[in-house]
Amino acid sequence: MPLPDKTTAFLHNTEMGLGAWAWGDRLYWDYGRGYTDQDIEAGFRAALEAGINLVDTAEIYGSGRSERLLGQFLKTTQTPVRVATKYFPFPWRFGRPALLRALRHSLERTGLERVDLYQIHWPPVVGTVEGLAEALADAVQAGLARAVGVSNYDRNQVQRAYTILARRNVPLASNQVEYHLLNRQVEKSGLLARCQELGVRVIAYSPLAKGLLTGKYSTHNPPPSLRGRLFASILPRLQPLIDLLAEIGQAHGGRTPSQVALNWTVCKGTLPIPGAKNAAQAIENLGALGWRLTPEQMQALDEASDRVTGR
Ligand SMILES: NC(=O)c1ccc[n+]([C@@H]2O[C@H](COP(=O)([O-])OP(=O)(O)OC[C@H]3O[C@@H](n4cnc5c(N)ncnc54)[C@H](OP(=O)(O)O)[C@@H]3O)[C@@H](O)[C@H]2O)c1
Fold first, then answer.
1. How far is the CA of 21 from the centre of ligand 1 (A)?
2. Alpha helices, DSSP H, located in 111-234
């Protein structure tokens, strides 16, 4: 694996970040029902106090509210925080200037002069991977982003973005992908290994499977709203995996299923960014760090994951 460049080294030295999708999102996360801005801020502060210094947001989260809340919180802390945000390549928004315009709006909302990591949220539908990679390099060269990455890119798209950026002397810092015990597609497709060979940090999003791996949801207590409908088919098969997470957690001095599930993503060499709606969740998630699952426990979890997902 190549040595990380100085602009991307922070990602390789970061074990876990904090995801900010739920900060302002009503459609998926029911923002305003069950948690408030005060709860979110308390989660942010608890994470910082425990040593987390990377927050992942996006221009589309809460239609900009997530970035604005982060900007407000940043003003009230002296702790240095690395900010990662994302550009959404809407089909009506293409061409290199569009990305720089969007990035400037993200900077206004967060109150920053530059972001630490600017990511393409999804592969483009209109326009090309190459065009967006050139625009990312423009963002670095304009001094608006320290490092750049992609998200939801497959192997071929990662390679193409990597090549274009390399020609501009800009490293591809990261690929943010869905990765957890209920979705190991990036591992099984070889994408994870290829990113690791290239020195591209794999950021694991939804590392708690959007709350399912916490163990608090079941067929009798499904998650609210949209999640309940989306996860109706997996819930009846989930319990054996939750039981194993709990059993392994006991062997590590009473770790919770969430902590074991997050530790699994760390042991796989990825950087998880769990979302937290309040301080209690943020603090619990931080208990995933500072210890390691054994190879036998990793194997048992892999096998249990295969049984639940049928792969
Ligand atoms: N690039 C992309 O396309 C993409 C897509 C998705 C996410 N992401 C990023 O990844 C981050 C994390 O993913 P995610 O928010 O989808 O899912 P996640 O981290 O798997 O789950 C977060 C949710 O689980 C519940 N939770 C978290 N910690 C808990 C704990 N200790 N105990 C009990 N419940 C807990 C909370 O919801 P409840 O309390 O309501 O259950 C929380 O909102 C996002 O915030 C975002 O930054 C990126």
1. 7
2. 129-141, 155-167, 185-188, 191-198, 225-230
